[in-house]
Write a structure and sequence with these properties.
two-stranded antiparallel sheet, mainly alpha, 6 helices, 62% helix, 99 residues
Length: 99
């Protein structure tokens, strides 16, 4: 997709600058970032916005938006739900499957 269309995990204090140029990288990096970084983007609606405007998947964006708005979800639970939403929509090969 290119760097200008990548998702950037930066966090609330701009402490990171990790870019995901596709959904596989998004899921991998999303699993690795700290809970505060994950939750910062979650509560800002960044995931659904990227899915809608860059991935161009309104169904995935709506699902992500519902997850983003569920304040009862822990960072871990929301991370799992976003991941499952992506995997339901796309067949993504993990590094285990590739290697």
């Amino acid at each position: 997709m290119g760097t200008e269309r990548s998702f950037y995990f930066r966090g609330p204090n701009l402490e990171l600058n990790l870019s995901a140029c596709n959904l596989r990288e998004f899921l991998r990096i999303g699993d690795e970032v700290s809970d505060p970084v994950w939750e910062h983007h979650l509560r800002a609606g960044d995931y659904s916005a990227w899915f809608r405007h860059v991935i161009r998947d309104d169904v995935l964006a709506r699902e992500a938006s519902d997850i983003e708005q569920d304040l009862a979800l822990s960072p871990g639970a929301s991370r799992d739900e976003i991941k499952q939403a992506v995997l339901r929509r796309y067949r993504i090969r993990t590094s285990r499957e590739i290697g």
